[in-house]
Write a structure and sequence with these properties.
The protein is α+β, with helices and mostly antiparallel strands. The protein folds into three domains: 52 residues, no CATH class; 94 residues, no CATH class; 85 residues, Ribonuclease H-like superfamily/Ribonuclease H (Nucleotidyltransferase, domain 5), CATH 3.30.420. Helices cover 37% and strands 22% of the residues. The strands form three sheets. The protein has a four-stranded antiparallel beta sheet with strand order 3-4-5-6. Strands 9-8-7-10 form a four-stranded mixed beta sheet. It is globular, with a radius of gyration of 22 Å.
Length: 264
């Protein structure tokens, strides 16, 4: 291990290598293939690893690489989800949720088996790793994990039907994109019928590539739509600042100001 640390430190001046570690799975990326191969040799001597070659599949994430960029998806995971829930042959839906639907913790009949609902929402949450279009619907449904009702389950089934329409959807990371951050912020004012709290939503691009997104209920009640918008912009700004720190850790300079767009 000491030899590996020494090798990595010596490589800083001439190359850059990143190692992503999840339990016993590793992903290596960098700008010098010779250095990556050398680090793999050091790892193999220390731990006896299995080299699977170019990254194509990792923890349910599928990668397709071309000269134009990298396409990310969770197609296999999505199809397994549809098969396990009996929705593999269902009629597809065009949207993940009915835009006029207002879910409440008190409306509907309590489910006899809430564990199945919690398991379904947990799998949907993992699917949002590559599916920003599912973020808002999943955020809405995850509020009722403690006491789910039939209306919540019906809304979750609508999401499954939407997934059936495009199980292989996902973001494309362009190799020809510029390196300027652009953030888009929005809020849904007092949309929760139970707490009257608003929902923050944002999407952040690095050039033309979508790299970060979120839909989350705000921690306090906003007394106006303007206040809800400001809270959403504040959350987005924090995420942009974190991404700037992350780019700096990757030795990527971001000298230009980041853009933050709001609809109001």
């Amino acid at each position: 291990m000491e030899n590996l640390e020494k090798t990595v430190k010596q490589a800083v001046s001439t190359s850059f290598t990143v190692i992503l570690v999840y339990v016993d799975d590793l992903v290596l990326a960098g700008n010098d293939i010779a250095e990556i191969n050398h680090i793999k040799q050091q790892l193999d001597q220390a731990f006896t690893i299995k080299d699977l070659g170019d990254l194509r599949y990792f923890l349910g994430l599928e990668l397709a690489r071309t000269k134009d960029g990298i396409f990310l998806s969770q197609r296999k995971f999505a199809l397994e989800l549809l098969e396990d829930t009996g929705y593999l042959a269902c009629k597809p839906a065009t949207t993940p949720m009915d835009p006029n639907l207002k879910l409440s913790k008190d409306k509907g009949v309590l489910l006899d088996d809430p564990k199945s609902y919690r398991k379904l929402i947990g799998r949907l949450q993992y699917l949002t790793t590559t599916r920003p279009d599912l973020s808002f619907a999943t955020q809405q449904l995850s509020q009722f994990m403690s006491t789910p009702r039939d209306t919540h389950l019906q809304a979750a089934h609508r999401v499954l039907r939407y997934i059936k329409s495009s199980p292989g959807a996902g973001p494309f990371l362009s190799s020809n994109s510029d390196l300027r951050l652009k953030a888009f912020s929005d809020s849904d004012w007092a949309s929760c019928v139970d707490s009257r709290r608003s929902v923050t939503g944002y999407a952040i691009f690095l050039g033309s590539s979508l790299i970060s997104w979120k839909a989350k209920k705000q921690p306090t009640v906003s007394r106006s739509s303007s206040e809800a918008e400001y809270r959403a912009m504040a959350s987005t700004t924090c995420e942009v600042q974190w991404l700037l720190y992350l780019l700096n850790d990757f030795s990527i300079s971001h000298f230009d100001p980041a853009f933050l767009y709001c609809d109001n």
